[in-house]
């Protein structure tokens, strides 16, 4: 499992006439990894994604899925084994929700009962009440509901790989956050290999095992959200990361639970309380708002479980959440620390090497605990 | 249903201005214009009779009807509008019965050629009532079936009155009775001409639209030629076709055997197809191209083959707009086919031109009314069909 590469892009380029959209890109994505491609519009992230299911044919280089060059696979057969979700959902307006979800299974000629069973499962998985939604048409759904159906449709034939092209880009912030959390929950359970495209770095930080920052058709930097925050490769990455807000963003990746003093060590109650599942960014905001230097930490049932002071945040010994490592998805970062044999000639490993140059073996230390995913599983 | 329709009409208590404008017109038609006339024979001008002359003081009661609708429309709640609708529908049903009574009273059974003509007042009344019905349909949200039911009721009253012979003394019916065989034949022929022209142009328009999608360079050329045809006046086009078709029929016997000649059905069909091609091709082309790019993109991304995308996604989604093309084309062809009677193509236009020639306006009407009715019916049916498809139909 550890040495496996599910999707490998080897020195891949795409030219449209004289324009080069993607330029000698190499990337290796491990099974179960959620890899987010981030960049400004026109940086080639969407093109890269669409080359993986051959919606766009690459001009140069090679793309392999499970070791097989995708050019050797019939394009329709290839797409039927890769889930695909896009921003506009692309639901068929003349089909009901149930029929939309059952599209790929029907293309794969599953028997009817199996399609129905699978459709029911997926609607349940995505929190869509079957009685209410199965017979509805897409125009009767809200944006969030439609995107849930879009994700359900992408998952219908239980593909190993899921490609998502700014799936939450058109949603309002509250719905977007709900669906992001949903995706984290689903991914913890399904362990798909997901390539996710977004221009929103916040979204990338929240979801990614690995972030790949692209600019001008090339990879600028790749690594875990912490990697990027600790050592942005250049001013471009830094500006994507939010410039002056970097400190806050980094704090946003550290759960309160990891830094607080458990009750008993220091007993004191304060006027404001923060949830143990919240992050340091939220805690700092609460402190600023209430002009407090320490907060009570409570669990999901509002029981006091500890305290958190400004000093705890400033003097936290563990600069990174990796210190409280739980070896859950250790394979996630493998391609970065152990590049696939064939990807040596790309620029991806170089970028990686530069990141690692900052602190030699940090990648190994950090890999087990990435993003904000683990505490969302609870 | 009633609850939902009254809830969805928050402004229902305000006056319905359309009805308030229409009903005085109906009142004026009833009181100021002649309703019908009595003619001693086919050609002689008849003697016009207004409501007072027909019914005397009792006619005042009839004049109350538009006033009644007016008073109901003043505060147009759903309930009051329904009552007003009832009044208008009843009036439409009473109209043929009233005409029958008029025929009985005013036509002397001993005068075989005497007949009843319909005068301006009648037509205005009919027209105003129809506009009122359209307004009711727009402002009252009744279940769809009930409109079909009301329509059937009104048409049924007219149909039964006509079929029972009660209205035989109408000049229009006299013209019909004199040539009922020819009328049926002309009606069928007219429909056949229109149907084959629309069918042919649908096939050709579809093929042209596909060709334009396949080879975008063709688009300008095809559009240019079709627009050019569209600008030729219909009579001129018939004239232009006359010589070449006559020459072809003369030269190739098999064409002549097929019935192709300079005049008649062949040039009519060619001209109708020619005029139909532009709206048909353009609508089909636009409809197929207008399908949401995201939908096609995701269909590809899901692994549908090009033919699956076309048949299961693009075509069904384009269908409502394509049917719009069929609708425009059909209505246009129904009207144009009447002109084709001039070059001996037959059809309902024959009566129109005969009537014009003989100065017999009722014969003109015998041709014109069915043409209008046909256009209205085809329009209604195809609009309903497009609407049904648009709402999203299960294709399983």
From TrEMBL, chain A:
Residues covered by region (Disordered): 321-378
GO MF, any single term: ABC-type quaternary ammonium compound transporting activity
Keywords (A to Z) from UniProt: ATP-binding, CBS domain, Cell inner membrane, Cell membrane, Membrane, Nucleotide-binding, Repeat, Transport
Domain of life where this protein originates: Bacteria
Protein's membrane topology: Peripheral membrane protein
SUPFAM superfamilies: CBS-domain pair, P-loop containing nucleoside triphosphate hydrolases
Enzyme Commission code: 7.6.2.9
A biological-process GO annotation: glycine betaine transport
Stored Pfam families: ABC_tran
Domain ABC transporter: 7-241
Entry's localization field: Cell inner membrane
Biased segments, Polar residues type: 326-336
Major subcellular site: membrane
The CBS domain, residue ranges: 260-324
SMART domains: AAA
UniProt catalytic activity: a quaternary ammonium(out) + ATP + H2O = a quaternary ammonium(in) + ADP + phosphate + H(+)
GO annotations of cellular component type: plasma membrane
Residue spans of biased composition, Basic and acidic residues class: 341-353, 361-378
Assembly information from the UniProt record: The complex is probably composed of two ATP-binding proteins, two transmembrane proteins and a solute-binding protein.
Family: Belongs to the ABC transporter superfamily.
Name recorded for this polypeptide: Quaternary amine transport ATP-binding protein
Species annotation: Onishia taeanensis
Automatic annotation (TrEMBL), chain B:
Keyword Transmembrane belongs to the record: yes
InterPro entries: ABC_transp_perm/SBD (IPR051204), MetI-like (IPR000515), MetI-like_sf (IPR035906)
Pfam family, one: BPD_transp_1
GO biological process, alphabetically ordered: glycine betaine transport; transmembrane transport
Transmembrane segments: 50-74, 81-107, 113-134, 146-167, 187-212, 224-248, 254-278, 333-353, 365-389
UniProt membrane topology term: Multi-pass membrane protein
Keyword line: Membrane, Transmembrane, Transmembrane helix, Transport
Ranges for domain ABC transmembrane type-1: 187-382
One GO CC term, this protein: plasma membrane
Localization annotation: Cell membrane
SUPFAM superfamilies: MetI-like
Family according to the record: Belongs to the binding-protein-dependent transport system permease family.
PANTHER family named in the record: GLYCINE BETAINE UPTAKE SYSTEM PERMEASE PROTEIN YEHY, GLYCINE BETAINE/L-PROLINE TRANSPORT SYSTEM PERMEASE PROTEIN PROW
Descriptive protein name: Osmoprotectant transport system permease protein
Organism name: Onishia taeanensis
Species classification: Bacteria, Pseudomonadati, Pseudomonadota, Gammaproteobacteria, Oceanospirillales
